[in-house]
Amino acid sequence: MAYLLIVPSSPALVEELAPADPASRRLRHVARRMGRQYLPPEHPPKLDIVCSQDKKWRTGIAGSFRAWGAPHTQVGSGNFLGELVVRYIFPAVPVGTVATRLCDVEHGAGAVTAVAIDGSAGLTARAPLALVPHAERAHQWCLSVLAGARPEVPSESWLREAGIIEPSMWIELANISPRHAVVLAEDSSLGVGRFVAHWEV
């Protein structure tokens, strides 16, 4: 059995970038508690990471959150925001493959993969995309996917119009049938759908 750990890719998960945001603090706490279950500090397995590698999320300073406003926060390696956030949430865990698709990482027995992904970025007027039509429907669809409910998969264009910036990653998740799926936390207070969930596949 392999395990997927779904976490936000939002830079607000980094305490130095959002020190006064209680929702981000809660999500970070829940994600790290999940990590202690699947990535025990005594003998952590190698962690693969799936995240967007779009150039808009890239920094030229490896391992640094300088581009997002925290120049002194270092995680050692990584040039894309999703990978940096995963390394921040799960420090001192050896990282294996970093990919943009789940099909490109190991799914053998005991394999652990972190998926850094956010839902709609248009859930409120203060959201990065402002308030987007159908954003709430997209948010509920993301929750259904993460809960393992296998909802009907909309088109990539509809997801994008509903504020989901990385629709292809969501479609790949939606086409997996997890043996067990649990949503541990979700939040939309910053106008972006953020989730912590774990799957057994």
Task: Give keywords.
201 residues; Protocatechuate 4,5-dioxygenase, Chain B; 5 helices; 26% helix; alpha/beta; six-stranded mixed sheet
Would you identify the CATH architecture? 3-Layer(aba) Sandwich
The computed structural class is alpha/beta
Detail the poorly predicted runs. Answer: none
* CATH H level, superfamily name: LigB-like
Number of domains: 1
Q: How many strands, what sense, and barrel or not for the largest sheet? A: 6 strands, mixed
The general outline is globular
The helix content is 25-40%
Would you count the extended β strands for me?
8
The end-to-end distance, rounded to whole angstroms, is 6 Å
The CATH topology is Protocatechuate 4,5-dioxygenase, Chain B
For the largest sheet, list the strands in their spatial order. 5-2-6-1-8-7
What fraction strand?
15-25%
In round numbers, the mean pLDDT is: 97
Number of H- or I-type helical stretches: 5
Classified by CATH, the class is: Alpha Beta
- Reading the helices and strands in chain order gives EHEEEHEEHHHEE
Report on the architecture of this protein.
The chain is an alpha/beta fold and 201 residues long. The chain has a single domain, classed as 3-Layer(aba) Sandwich (Protocatechuate 4,5-dioxygenase, Chain B), CATH 3.40.830.10. Helices cover 26% and strands 20% of the residues. The protein contains 5 helices and 8 strands; from the N terminus they run βαβββαββαααββ. It has helices spanning 22-38, 81-89, 135-146, 156-161, 167-174; strands at residues 3-7, 47-50, 64-65, 70-74, 95-99, 112-116, 180-187, 194-200. The longest helix has 17 residues, at 22-38. It is globular, with a radius of gyration of 16 Å. The chain starts with a strand and ends with a strand.
